[in-house]
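forwarding from the other thread:

> can someone predict this with nicotinamide-adenine-dinucleotide?

sure thing
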Amino acid sequence: MTVIVTGGAGFIGSNFIFYMLKKHPDYRIVCVDKLTYAGNLSTLEPVMKLPNFRFVKLDICDREGIYKLFEEEKPDITVNFAAESHVDRSIENPDIFLKTNILGTAVLMDACRKYGIKRYHQVSTDEVYGDLPLDRPDLFFTEDTPIHTSSPYSSSKAGADLLVLSYYRTFDLPVTVSRCSNNYGPYHFPEKLIPLMIANALHDKPLPVYGKGLNVRDWLYVEDHCKALDLIIHKGRVGEVYNIGGHNEMRNIDIVKLICRELGKPESLITYVTDRKGHDMRYAIDPTKIKNELGWTPETKFEDGIKKTIRWYLDNREWWETIINGEYRDYYERMYANR
Ligand code: NAD
Ligand code: TYD
């Protein structure tokens, strides 16, 4: 079985590659990644020399390059993680989000049509459903919740989802789509809430909480997401959407305070800054479908997962220090200097 994993030098894609190589040692995994600011080849160092692993530096929008690769590799499965993934950057400049997230998805699916595929899987997000009000804790996103996006990021992901489902209906392409809640764990890029707060706290820098910090996210340990994807690509029904989430809703401010406690840092580092434009209030997944159909449930409790994650950032300082000392520094200045 040959699996093409796009965006495998990023956070979730790299965790998925590690998971798949361990779980299916007889599979060939081909990672396609453009290595944008969010892609890090050093992350894949431990698997780079494995005979059943190949890394290809390639943009998923490069039709010629993608077709050539499909011709060479004849993949059985393609799992598309490649995306511009940060909401704040999409507010700054939506253009690249539309290109990579929508047009790149089309190129991959066209390659699947041309060369044949057993399964094309689109890794999507719960953000396509928009947000839920804080005063209605009884409401959750199901697969039937209407698409109702807030940011250029979520709109580009929603556009891709619709395109994927249209390729199923129109061309019979064997697709599946998963919509997962917020992930956390090792190799999470330090522009996102949890790693940013860990890195800043370790440097005794201000912890920039948007608005009042009351926004709620449904956090899932990244390995649980990878397990769900492995189940979907092998046992999920084609043409279906699966929501992935663990009923683990947390307010941002409570997460930041927890990180301070775990690291022995004072809460006085917390700084409330101007809110994100169009900031979604609450995300919450109803995972009943994937639980009933595929027997998936999250295994890592948040209190254990966050401890493991913090431990990983303490043990792997070089990985994230290199990032925050590189070109990412300009982004941080732009985003937070006068906020
Ligand atoms: P990430 O930003 O850490 O990684 C994205 C990877 O894609 C990087 O390695 C980058 O180099 C690569 N990439 C970007 N543009 C590319 C292009 N044009 N061609 C080839 N490679 C390209 O993102 P992540 O957090 O790992 O998210 C992976 C996927 O999961 C995304 O599709 C995202 O929408 C989805 N998702 C993420 C979360 C989350 O909490 N992080 C939750 C639900 C869904
Ligand atoms: P983020 O990790 O960017 O994920 P998403 O916006 O896709 O859910 O942000 C998670 C939450 O944390 C979101 O409500 C915005 C908030 N946030 C802050 O308060 N401060 C920050 O510096 C960042 C990056 C995020």
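Residues 87, 182, 192-193, 196, 208-210, 215, 217, 252, 276 surround thymidine-5'-diphosphate (ligand 2) (CB under 6 Å). thats all i got for now
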